[in-house]
Amino acid sequence: MIEYRNLKIAILGAGSVGAQVASLLLEHGEELANRVGAGLEVVGIAVRDLDAPRTAEIPRELLATDARSLILGADIVIEVMGGIEPAREYLELALTSGADVITANKALLATHGPELFAIAEQVGAQLYYEAAVGGAIPIIRPLRDSLAGDRVHRILGIVNGTTNYILDRMDRDGDTLEQALAAATELGYAEADPTADIDGFDAAQKAAILASLAFHTTVAVDGVHREGIRTVTRDQVVAAQRSGFVVKLLAVCERLVDPETGRDGVSARVHPALIPAGHPLAAVHGANNAVFVEAEAAGSLMFYGAGAGGRQTASAVLGDLVSAARRHVVGGPGVAESTHADLPILPISSVSTRYQITLSVLDRPGVLAQIATLFSEHGVSVEAVQQSVVTVGGGEDEESAGATLVIGTHRATEKALAATVADLAGSPVVARVESVLRVEGL
Ligand code: HSE
């Protein structure tokens, strides 16, 4: 029997996520109320345009254009409008007025997270954001709560569905980047301006959130090294297949030792990478997301599922709503952020990983030896070399004039690798550095 007063819920935004949150909450309100031990009363849904088309039917009397009045009368505010302003201002108002806040807004958290968490702590309110990374996939709670007693070493995440869809088409359907992007746009995965996805901005925001949680350290989005997928070619994807890899856009968050100071630090980066075809992340197809976590005691864990979609993301928002509402009813310490470790954020030059470098070279005696010398001069250890001879010219005089070398390295620092690649590019025996890709997950 429910004896607690009804909790008042304000929803800000009725776009693809907001409309589904409202619709599911109205549909399953009684069941959720039983889980919470209090009625959940939607006091209103703030929208800019009362007549805009919605993906779910919402009673018109719940729609309102005055977000501030709704916020001031609410126990719990759900922000699913996106963007920085006015979302930031509304969340600040909600928190300072004592409401708990649930948000799916990764851009806001990655840029203004620390100040919002500070306000929440000051007033004793809670800020929940399971839906901000990986859509429906539970990853925030596992990192914050389930793994709170462990030590996370590394996270490898496929956290952008659009780029995964594009790279997967290039891998499995033989598309070029342009063809795959056109298909992603047609299906509604990519926006008309696909920059946020394909240049890695969306993934970098998610990497900042994951790294902050995993390493108990504030990681701002500016501290995340970012490279998108615009330069990935079909040739690279085919070459990767031949050597037993797939190309994925990865968010890599690592705790590592700074080679300059010998002290622990955090690296967060987003870039295309080769992963072994047998790695669990290689089996993440289409627009799905997955986050692979390596922790000291737990070992390897993978969280997989739909990383976007209105209804799927609404599932994560409603999970947060039940948690927030239960805290009103039964109390509890809430979900304070922990940034006690305060580790330094290391630049990409401090990272060490493995690389695969593809070179077009002249095919004549001594070339391999000269190239091997360049690697060794920079302390980069070669693990494997594959050569294929490229024949150019025609007719009877045809002779082999060039070769393609695919060189895999052992672990090396970005700094040493960059110096090696610069020397390779300037070497008289190298016609072209065709591709340099990091290798992760080995
Ligand atoms: N545009 C994102 C993606 C979904 O493609 O995964 C929202 O974060």
Description:
With 442 residues, the protein is an alpha/beta fold. It folds into three domains: 4-133 and 311-330, NAD(P)-binding Rossmann-like Domain (Rossmann fold); 140-307, Dihydrodipicolinate Reductase, domain 2 (2-Layer Sandwich); 351-439, ACT domain (Alpha-Beta Plaits, 2-Layer Sandwich), CATH 3.30.70. The protein has 13 helices and 17 strands. It has helices at 16-36, 67-72, 87-96, 106-123, 140-146, 161-172, 177-186, 195-198, 201-215, 234-242, 310-330, 367-377, 414-426; strands spanning 7-12, 40-46, 63-64, 76-79, 100-103, 127-128, 152-158, 225-226, 245-257, 264-276, 288-295, 299-306, 352-362, 382-392, 399-409, 412-413, 430-439. The strands form two sheets. Strands 7, 8, 9, 10, 11, 12, 13, 14, 15, 16 and 17 form an eleven-stranded mixed beta sheet that branches. α3 links the parallel β4 (76-79) and β5. α1 runs parallel beside α11 (310-330) and α6 (161-172) crosses α7. L-homoserine (HSE) binds at residues 160-162, 189, 197, 202, 307-308.
